[in-house]
């Protein structure tokens, strides 16, 4: 994918986490997040059949998750200021675990929408807490760990997607499955929380107030993150149904699309911190989006192996984009880390929730295959922004030389 990608980059990033428990502890929160989310993704077809609702209604229900995510933007920033980013991250995990049960306990369409609204609130809160914590660690310890931390999300997603499909088919008891998962997650993270629990960000009075003219670069950064997370959300929520209904893959293998996506994300993200130092954020983002778009073209081919390979290539391409978006946002001059990351995390999480909604509408009106074609075209927005920013940064560099 990248000209300088090699095993040394990956191993170097992994060593940082496994030699330093304080970095592993915060990174493992991403694994907890994705284990829960990927398990939810695996059960979407089950919930659809249980409540007898089609793709369009599933999309409408998931829209309530986006509303919940939007609701938390301002609240999370205030709570982080009050209690500290470390404490908030731990309690956000507990909240997310509790709200995870909601969609499985829903007994009709209305209760599903309500439970997904609450689940969306908890997910947005956890995403903001995680990325604020990691950005704070990067600034305070002067270390690159954002991309590698997101690599732990991919590990959880891969494990959850593969094992979730088989456990769901064998156990045939969703509540028992998720209860065991939540118990294990909470036991492990409770033992690790001492390494990040007391972390706090900058004091409010140490950061200059922003002028409105400074908002422009943050909005562009957030827009790229939103576009990519629309794609990630779409793949997470619809890859299983896409492989089942469009590609007509056997039921026990439908989790392999998201698993391939998550596996590639893991590989790319454990290389991302080194690549970011070597290439720079904007060049890395531009190259990554090109690869992701090529992957989508493979997904659209009516062949199980090629489609799964396509999900892998998309994951490989998009793996470093969101971590770089957070890194760029946290370094925007004149804005507090927690505020910048909260804004971007909430924006990207809304994209993660809205992607499946839009695909659901298109799938209901036309086909799920057309939905993924539209998604491919949509990603070009992020490419043009990144390409423009990359060229702008090169121009500034050339001017600074003279």
What is the average of the pLDDT values? 82
Number of strands: 0
Give the fraction of residues assigned to helices: over 70%
**Shape type:** globular
Beta-strand content estimate: under 5%
What's the tally of helices?
Answer: 17
- What do we call the CATH topology? Growth Hormone, Chain: A
Rg measurement, Å: 20 Å
CATH superfamily: MFS general substrate transporter like domains
Give the helices and strands as they follow along the chain. HHHHHHHHHHHHHHHHH
Structure described in brief:
The chain has helices at 7-19, 21-42, 44-51, 55-71, 73-83, 85-99, 102-105, 109-141, 146-171, 174-192, 215-246, 256-279, 281-299, 304-318, 321-330, 337-365, 368-401.
Can you offer a commentary on this structure?
It is a single chain. The longest helix is centred in the C-terminal third of the chain and has 34 residues, at 368-401. Helix 11 packs antiparallel against helix 15 (321-330). With 402 residues, this protein is an all-alpha fold. The protein starts with 6 loop residues before the first helix and ends with a helix. Helix content is 82%, strand content 0%. The radius of gyration is 20 Å and the shape is globular. It has helices at 7-19, 21-42, 44-51, 55-71, 73-83, 85-99, 102-105, 109-141, 146-171, 174-192, 215-246, 256-279, 281-299, 304-318, 321-330, 337-365, 368-401. The protein is built from 17 helices and no strands. The chain has one domain: Growth Hormone, Chain: A (Up-down Bundle), CATH 1.20.1250.20.
